[in-house]
Specification:
The chain is of the alpha+beta class. The protein has helices at residues 2-17, 42-51, 115-121, 132-140, 162-165, 174-184, and strands spanning 57-61, 79-84, 90-96, 124-127, 145-147, 158-159, 170-171, 208-209, 212-215, 223-228, 233-238, 241-242, 252-253, 255-261, 263-265, 273-275, 279-287, 290-298, 306-308, 322-328, 334-335. A hairpin with a 4-residue loop joins strand 10 (223-228) and strand 11.
Length: 336
């Protein structure tokens, strides 16, 4: 009987060792390439970004008003830009690893200043329409794009609740994006890895308290974050409520970057705006309940944005999802 028990235990251990799935992640651990970003430990997040050789996928996500929400897919983005557009609204550009998500959206149209961050990350770009300036810039800048209105990517989208969502109703999936990328022969190996992450989570020793962050884009819309000390993450808010998403759980961030930029009318006879993304400016780096002042610098449309602390040192982001908030220079964030 004892020999039988020993044999069974040995077989179980042998089979467990052959799965290639360690019980916990850490240095040297095997990290499945399809592991959800939201579930990754700091070690696993750092390793995933550092070792990834694939181009990220950038998707424009509608955020005009309540009809555009709840959003789908944002929990799996490793970086999200929130940027002003015309009419006092904001639009999101989410960066994903090329895997996973069955549903992303609602997808919306491009604006030319988002292209500067597509280039910065060497991303494959997915959008549903464009402004006239973006239409001209996308081919001129050599961006590999999938457009839902016409041309390269019209068949990778579907509509949901069109009667109530109106033009907030276009969705796509990563599978459809990648299949179309293959058909079009776009390059899939990344040539840039612009983000600098610390290997371990680090607190800002000289930072000021930042457990509450509110960014008042307009009098009728504010984007914000509330710090959860237990998890070390920020819960994403719209106004005073949780940011609505279609998945279970909450939309969260480990890091928040605020960049204040000159924003002004484009001057093309429309309500569209221009944002001076190239140049220098001020901002805030917020993580682990603290905030420090930073400067940002971007020397060209395709160059990486460099964030530095007051000592002139390039900051290292804590490993985890980062929200980058572009804010008109005359608007002050409320941090406390």
């Amino acid at each position: 009987m004892k020999k039988t028990i020993v044999f069974l235990l040995s077989a179980i251990l042998l089979l467990g060792g052959c799965t290639g799935k360690p019980s916990e992640t850490g240095p040297g651990a095997v990290i499945p390439t399809d592991a959800p970003v939201a579930s990754l430990s700091a070690d696993a997040f750092y390793t995933r970004y550092k070792e990834s050789s694939s181009r990220p996928v950038a998707v424009m996500v509608d955020n005009d008003n309540g009809q555009a929400r709840p959003h789908a897919g944002l929990t799996e983005a490793y970086m999200i830009y929130e940027v002003p557009v015309e009419g006092g609204a904001t639009r999101l550009m989410a960066l994903f690893y090329p895997e996973g998500k069955e549903k992303i959206g609602p997808v919306r149209s491009s604006r030319h200043y988002f292209l500067d961050y597509v280039l910065e990350h060497d991303a494959l770009y997915t959008h549903f329409g464009y402004s006239p300036r973006a239409l001209a810039d996308i081919p001129a800048l050599g961006i590999n794009n999938l457009n839902g209105v016409e041309g390269s990517g019209a068949d990778i989208f579907w509509r949901e609740d069109e009667a109530t969502r109106a033009y907030h109703s276009a969705f796509t999936s990563m599978e459809k994006i990648l299949n179309k990328t293959g058909v079009l022969g776009y390059r899939t190996e990344r040539e840039k890895s612009p983000l600098v992450f610390a290997e371990q989570v680090t607190e800002l020793a000289e930072g000021k308290d930042a457990t509450s962050v509110k960014i008042p884009y307009t009098g009728f819309y504010s984007s914000g974050f509330s710090y959860d000390a237990e998890s070390g993450n920020y819960k994403k808010l719209i106004g005073e409520s949780a940011h609505p998403i279609q998945e279970d759980g909450e939309l969260r961030a480990k890091n928040i970057i605020i960049m204040q930029m000159k924003t002004y009318p484009l001057g093309d006879g429309s309500a569209r705006i221009n944002i001076d993304t190239v140049g220098t400016g001020k901002g805030q780096y917020i993580t682990m309940g603290k905030s420090i002042p930073i400067t940002w610098e971007k020397t060209s449309r395709s160059a990486k944005t460099v964030w530095k602390n007051e000592k002139g040192e390039e900051i290292k982001l804590n490993p985890g999802t980062t929200w980058v908030m572009l804010l008109p220079s005359g608007v002050s964030p409320q941090i406390g």
